Structure formats: structure tokens, C-alpha cells
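Let us practice reading a record.
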Amino acid sequence: MKKSNRKGFTLVELVVVIAIIGILAAILVPTMMNYVKKSKLKTANSNAKLVFTTVNNEAADLLVNGETVGSGDGQTAAVNIKTTLGALTGTTTADKLGKAVYEALKDNGNGAGWCVYSIGTSGNVEYAQWSDVQTPTSGVLGQYPDPCKDPDEANHDFGSKVTSW
């Protein structure tokens, strides 16, 4: 009798390997999706902090130059970073603040996002929010100060501030 010199995998071996890969995928995919959510939230919080810092710095510069910065001077509705803030002339206090935000975030791409910031009577920023879409409850919403840490609760923790959009 001749010995056959066949090499390869048996059907049982292939089924076992496919089952192991399936189990690993079932464990890893939800974990990776959570990393993506957390990453988007961190980016949104970072952008909100950048808006907060930029407006605070620009408002301080305006105050030093003798201009009035107070309640009502900030943006009070959702503002598209590219189309709205990018088109400002920079003549009024609100335009100067908006232009500063645009300059800080213009490198984020065409879909730069939407922002809201509120300036108190003292000229300091009370809060800043950033979202990747106009309706923050359907996208990723970041806020500064007091950013949310849980991506699943990010759009629900801001209460009345979200409804101002």
C-alpha cells in the first residue's frame, strides 16, 4: 500500500478555528465600539474647552482694550463653526469673539461642528458646548467646564443648557 502524503486541515480543525475567532470577535467588538464612543466624547470635550478658553482670552483682551463684554455679547444659539463664524467681519464684540473661535477651530475640517458659549455679566465665559451636529441630542456633545465622562449619558447631563440650541 502506498502512503498518501496529503497535507492540509480537516473540517473539524477549521470549524474549531472559526468558532474561536467568532468568540473573540463577540468579546472584542463591543469593547472597541466603547473606545470609539469615548474617543469622540473626549474630542468633543476638548473642542468645548478650546471654545471656552478662546472666548475667555479674547474677552479679556477686549476688556483690556476698553470694550464692553458682558451678558448678551456671546452667541446664544447653535453656531456653525465654518459657515457662520467663518463669515464674521469682526466689527462688533460678538463678531470678534466668534472670529476668535473660528480661528481656533478652523483646522477641524469642513464639518467643524457647532458651538454655544455664554458670557456672564462680568465678561467671563460661564460655559461652552461643542457638538458635531446642530441638534446635540443626536450627536456627540462636549461641554466645559464640568465635562461628562460617560459617552452614553453625555447628551442627557446638561439639562437646560442643551435646550438653548
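A brief commentary: The chain has a mean pLDDT of 77.
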